Structure formats: structure tokens, C-alpha cells
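Lab notebook: predicted structure, single chain.

Context: the supervisor wants predicted structures on file for every construct in the current expression panel, including those that have not yet been purified. This is the next one on the list. No modifications to the sequence; it matches the entry in the shared construct table.
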Amino acid sequence: MEKFNMQDTRNRGARYIFAFLFLVLLGACSSLRLAYNNGDTLLFWWLDAYVDLDSAQKPPVKSDIGNFFRWHRKTQLQDYAQVLQRAQQQLQANPSLADLQADYKDIRARTQAMLLKAAPDIAELALSLKPEQLEQMAEKFDKNNRDFRKKNMKGGRDEQLKFRYKKSMEQFGLWFGNFSREQEAVIRKASDARPLDNELWLDERMRRQKGILALAHRIQQEKPSQAAAETMVRELIQENFERTEKPSDRKPFFDAYANGTMELVLTVIRIATPEQKAHAHKRMQGWIEDLNALAVQAR
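Prediction complete. Output recorded below exactly as produced.
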């Protein structure tokens, strides 16, 4: 194996973050094309906020992010459009719980595949990080956890249920438009039926963060070969994806929450009026057209 070049590691990294960024854009932005075309800048800012890239790292990381977006346009966007087309068909036919479970597994598999594909880039980034950048990452994680507590764990159970319901309604409103008071009452009941344990979710967040930091520190201290670092990264990715599927004292909660969330979605679809379903179909069609147009730009 060729000798590892520390400078080369600064020319890459951060690609894996896009898997999360894209899901956020798809779920929270009404103009996907606009968001995607500015995604390279948003991703760079996001990464810089976590590790505070130095002057030598910034130009190559920007170049690397651009290369990743070009790859993503060419190979992934039309596939996403097909996923949305399938969702349109399910919406009109009123999907079953089995349909949503299959969709959930499909999305998980796609996200995991992207992260595993990016393992070499993640390893290179980890090999290039400095002690002060790991400290910056730890501080950012702490800030995120404080924000989570402030938003999700404020007040007692009733207040936390209400906050979770409002977050769900923001997403349902994006898809279906406005709901009547009667519909909102039905949705609130289905939302509250899901198990609530924000302490557990916070603990899971912190566990993942500690795992990331521990691996980053280990790679920095041991300076393994590129291949060895890639293996470490792949193992952590797989561990995080498999955690909710393996038998444990928390698996009943994970299963109940996932099933409760799917039942919530099924409830919304079941009570949606023809006009609301048409709104959702039109919204998805707009995203499909955006995705296909973005894919064409890569040719």
C-alpha cells in the first residue's frame, strides 16, 4: 500500500453528510431545486460549523463537495424521483402498514448504502482532523444536545406531547395543506398514542456522538492505514444502523415508536380529503419534476 499522504486527506471528506442534508431539504423545503442548487454551500457551512476547517482545508473541501454533488446528480436523483412516484401511487390506493414498513426499510437501506460508499472519504477526513477540531466537534454536539433538551424536554409530559404533535403537523401541512379542527383532533390522538421517552432519545443521540468522537480520537492517535480507518468507519456505520434492530431492553420501545409513527401516517392518509390528497400529489409531482430537471443538468 502506498504511504498515506496527510495533505491528500484534506482534499476530501464530508460527502457522507449529504445523505442527511438531502433528507432535510426534501422534507423541509418547498423548492427542492433551489435548495439543491445551493446545497454545496449549505453543506460546507454545516461541516465548517462542526470542525472549524482551517484555511488549508477549505478550498479542497469545497471542491470535494462540488464533486460529490455532481456524482449525486448523475446517479441518485432519478432514483429518488421513482421513490416519490411510488409514494404517489400508494397515496391514491391508501397504503397498508406493510407498505409503509417496506418504504421505511428501503429508505434506511439507501441511506446506509450511501454512508458505506463514503467510508473512504469519512476515513480520510478523520485522519486529517486536529485535536482542536475534535474539541470543536464535541462542543457542537454539546450545543445540539442543549437545544434538544430546550425544545423537546421542556415542561411535563403534556407539553412534550404537544410539541411533538406540532412538529408532526408542520410536516403533514407541507404535504397535505390545511386540516380541519376535527382532523387535527384525530391526528393529535394518533400522535399521542406513540410512546414518549425523550430521555431515551437524548441518550441515544449522546451514545452516537460519543461513538463518533471515540473513533475520531482513536484514528487521530493511532494513525492507522487508510484501509484500516475505512474498516473502522464502516463498522461504526453498520453498528448505528443495526442498533435498533438487535435484541435489547430498548428494542420494544424502538419497535413501538416506529409502528406508532407509521400508524400516525396511515391515519392522516385515511382521513385526508380528496382535495388534500390532490395537494400532496401535486407537491410530490413538483419534487419529481425538480429531481428530473436536476438530473438532466448533470448530463
